[in-house]
Design a protein that fits this description.
Blueprint: E1 2-12, H1 15-31, E2 35-51, E3 54-67, H2 68-80, E4 84-90
Antiparallel strand pairs: 1-3, 1-4, 2-3
């Protein structure tokens, strides 16, 4: 079943690692047939606490339409990636 999701990801602030992480996110969405309806680069911000020895992170926000079954698979990919510091999928219809 296709539903709307909000996805926020924090990538490393290093330009090369950020671009690699961004590509990973976009390729993963494409692989699972997720349709990006909105994308917003929120820029580099100071983190409230260090994540993997990083005190700054590059935030990117997406709104997308995806199959509910694919969300858990994408979750696993992002959890295992060293390029992604933190991420969160939210179903705005279930708030």
């Amino acid at each position: 079943m296709i539903q709307n999701y909000e996805f926020t990801v924090i990538l490393e602030s290093d330009e090369e690692r950020m671009k690699a992480g961004y590509e990973l996110v976009k390729e993963t969405f494409a692989r699972f047939g997720a349709e990006i309806t909105k994308e917003e680069d929120l820029g580099v911000r100071t983190l409230a606490y260090e994540i993997r020895k990083q005190d700054r992170g590059h935030y990117i926000y997406f709104e997308l339409k995806a199959d509910t079954a694919s969300i858990s698979e994408m979750n696993n990919i992002f959890q295992l990636s060293t390029l992604v510091l933190k991420f969160l999928f939210v179903n705005p219809e279930r708030k």
